[in-house]
Amino acid sequence: MRFTNTLRFRLTAWYCLALALGLIAFGVALLGLASKHLLTNHDEAMSLKGYAVSHILDQDLRGTDLTQGQRENLMRLGRVAIAQMDQGVERMLYRDP
To answer: Among the residues of 1-97, which ranges form H helices?
Structure first.
């Protein structure tokens, strides 16, 4: 009698298959939940910072350069970089020191 035809082997193989499928399903579910949670929190933080930057830039529209007050307000936000594209040329308006 071959080992692969025994009841013990078949039950062990089914158990291993069920365990593997369960672990794969758990991993996929955990990955989906973690990525959704991380992206949602990151997107919210970036949106809030974007609105704050937009509000700061709308305060004074005297020209293409930032005022000292705008620079101070941007510095309070944390890590921010603002670039301006003009006719295909990029110019950095502000980069957090």
So the answer is: 7-58, 68-77
